[in-house]
Specification:
The protein is of the alpha/beta class and 632 residues long. Helix content is 59%, strand content 13%. It is built from 18 helices and 16 strands. Strands 10-13-14-7-15-16 form a 6-stranded mixed β-sheet, with helices on both faces. Strands 2-1-3-4 form a 4-stranded antiparallel β-sheet. It has a 4-stranded antiparallel β-sheet with strand order 6-5-8-9, with helices on one face. The chain is elongated, with a radius of gyration of 36 Å. The protein starts with 15 loop residues before the first helix and ends in a 6-residue tail after the last helix.
């Protein structure tokens, strides 16, 4: 290891006592196990202490009298040895039972925390994932959870066991010789001083180690996902330099923490040997000077064994403290995620399957009919009313900003009547995707109103709102599983026939049949074995099988070649028929038949109308269409 400048993370756990208390709260379901474990700890401590005390009695009451008398009757000695063996046997059994019972406590607590973390993660707003790397989040599920496992299964039991053992042994030492106990306390004070100093210095490095590991994991995850881009732009050396910086930071913290932690064992052991030598000299002088009146030879041997047993748990505690500090740092990162503000949903209007008769009367039904209605519960009157879902969406004077004070959208007004196709055109960053994110309520607006069938979308439950919207994103996400599973993701109860029909509608059926196992072909790594266009076709098929009343297509054909685009466009037109559709596209050929085209620039709608209207205006859209300038 080359010499490096050592420094810590500079941060300590905000409230380690509160974090530990909260973590211990997850162990409440295992109270019975913990009670039995505590009993086992006490039994082990008493067995260890009693065994050491019996060694002194063995010398004073059996061996020395037999030596003095020359007796060869080993019966009493053997029986006493059997008794000692039984005591140690009970201690071993209790120790085994303790370890056995802590396994379900450790694994069960981990499972509960992981379940809560994942459940909470599903409720977090997109804003959280935009500001935290996937690798950093993943490290909380892996390295941070693993530090908790070590603390629950090893550090806490050993610390409790050590404290109980020290207490029991201290009482036994006082009974054996209060003079030698005082001598022992002076040497123990030295051990404790060294331990406190080292632990205090090492703790911040252990905390820094966990944070550095999270940052490193986040960077590695980014590089794995973006490896193709790295190679295209030949940024391998730049990436390596950045990785080296993060790795060096982790190395500094881990190296210093490990060095300080590992030095405690040898230091404490050497101090223990010094203590042992001092006790032997002082004890021997007392035995000789008092002629065995103040302390017998057997008692001295007992005390020497007890002193060794006394130092061992102290060393254990000092070693486990570092593990506990590191685990608390990991627990704090876990609880930071779990304490994040969840996505707020105060909506109460629900989306239900409906049957609508010729008179317009709406009846809620449990099965899917292809017709939907908004269910309005009126708590004050105790009644329920229904409104047919038609797909009428309006935005009125909408303002929005990702960062307070920096508006991304300003005074946005638009009207999408049922069955209309609304297209957004504009340069990158103009606000096109942001509008669709607001309709989905991935983000909440700063001012204005968004209404869906004349219902303020804040009153609609988010899950029901999003269930009514089919979305095809520019960035395609496929999941591990078969092609059929990925299409069915849009509607989990869809039959194979429905999935195949959706694939045909998106013109994905032919290429799927050419795959090694057709619809049963396994996809991994976000469908890395497929081309970008094929992945996009599967995403379109996934939206088609959901059969939603409103569709949002964000650059849905951006990754498809011109020939395939014509096939897909035919399928998309069939899919969009009778639905309200929002389309974002750079290719103007895909939106020429839209009912209304809106041109955005820096968060404002600067032009709107049909293709022919905008061409006649000879404004920005005309210049885009004729190639006077291009979208960036």
């Amino acid at each position: 290891m080359p010499p490096v400048k050592m420094r810590g993370d500079g941060r300590k756990a905000k409230n380690p006592v509160k974090t530990l208390t909260r973590m211990l709260g997850y162990m409440k379901p295992y109270t019975f196990n913990l009670i039995v474990v505590m009993i086992c700890v006490i039994v082990t401590a008493f067995a260890q202490t009693k065994g050491s005390e019996n060694i002194g009695h063995l010398v004073d009451d059996y061996i020395l009298p037999m030596v003095a008398s020359g007796s060869t009757d080993f019966g009493p000695l053997v029986r006493y040895l059997i008794g000692i063996a039984c005591i140690f046997g009970c201690g071993m059994l209790a120790s085994f039972l303790q370890a056995f019972l802590m396994v379900p406590v450790s694994q069960g607590t981990q499972k509960t925390i992981r379940d809560e973390m994942f459940t909470k993660m599903q409720r977090l707003p997109l804003r959280y994932f935009d500001s935290n790397t996937a690798g950093n989040i993943m490290s909380r599920y892996t390295s941070d959870i693993d530090t908790l496992r070590q603390m629950i299964s090893q550090s806490i039991p050993q610390t409790v066991s050590s404290i109980v053992t020290v207490t029991v042994i201290l009482i036994a030492m006082v009974r054996a010789s209060w003079i030698l106990t005082i001598v022992t306390m002076f040497t123990v004070a030295g051990i404790m001083f060294v331990t406190i100093k080292v632990v205090g210095t090492a703790s911040k490095y252990f905390i820094g180690q966990q944070r550095s590991l999270g940052a490193l994991n986040g960077y590695v995850e980014e590089m794995i996902n973006g490896q193709k881009v790295v190679k295209v732009f030949t940024h391998e050396e730049t990436c390596k330099e950045e990785f080296d910086k993060l790795n060096e930071e982790l190395c500094r913290n881990a190296y210093t923490a490990g060095r300080l932690s590992n030095m405690m064992g040898p230091v404490n052991n050497n101090l223990g040997y010094i203590q042992y030598a001092i006790l032997a000299v002082v004890g021997g002088i007392i035995v000789v000077a008092s002629g065995g009146e103040m302390i017998t030879l057997g008692n001295l041997m007992t005390f020497m064994l007890l002193s060794r047993s006394f130092n061992h748990p102290i060393s254990q505690v000092s070693n486990q403290i570092n593990s506990i500090v590191m685990a608390l740092a990991g627990a704090e990162r876990i609880f930071e995620l779990m304490d994040e503000e969840p996505e707020v949903d105060e909506g109460y209007v629900q989306l239900v399957n409906a049957e609508i008769d010729e008179n317009g009367n709406i009846t809620e039904v449990p099965h899917r009919t292809g017709r939907w209605a908004w269910k309005h519960p009126h708590k004050a009157e105790g009644t329920v009313t229904y409104t047919e879902l038609k797909g009428d969406i309006t935005l009125n004077m909408v303002d929005f900003s990702y960062v307070p004070g920096k508006l991304v959208l300003e005074d946005i007004c638009l009207y999408a009547h049922p069955g209309e196709k609304i297209a957004f055109v504009g340069a990158t960053g103009a606000g096109k995707t942001t509008i669709t994110n607001l309709i989905n309520r991935f983000y909440d607006i700063a001012d204005g109103k968004i209404r869906y069938d004349n219902i303020n979308i804040n009153k609609i439950r988010k899950a029901d709102l999003r269930r009514s919207l089919g979305v095809v994103l520019q960035e395609t996400n496929l999941f591990t599983g078969t092609v059929m599973d990925n299409i069915r993701y849009g509607k989990l109860d869809a039959t194979d026939e429905e999935c195949i029909a959706a694939a045909k509608l998106a013109n994905a059926h032919d290429f799927i049949l050419r795959l090694p196992k057709g619809y049963d072909t396994e996809l991994t790594g976000n469908g890395a074995s497929l081309s970008q266009g094929q992945r996009q076709l599967l995403a379109i098929a996934r939206a088609a099988v959901a059969d939603p009343p409103v569709m949002i297509l964000d650059e849905a054909t951006s990754s498809i070649d011109t020939r395939t685009e014509k096939l897909v466009q035919d399928g998309m037109d069939a899919l969009m028929k009778g639905r309200t559709v929002f389309v974002i596209a750079h290719r103007l050929s895909t939106i020429m038949n839209s009912d209304c085209i809106m041109v955005l620039d820096h968060g404002h709608i600067i032009e709107r109308g049909t293709h022919d209207d905008l061409i006649a205006q000879k404004g920005t859209y005309y210049q885009l269409y004729t190639g006077a300038f291009e979208l960036e």
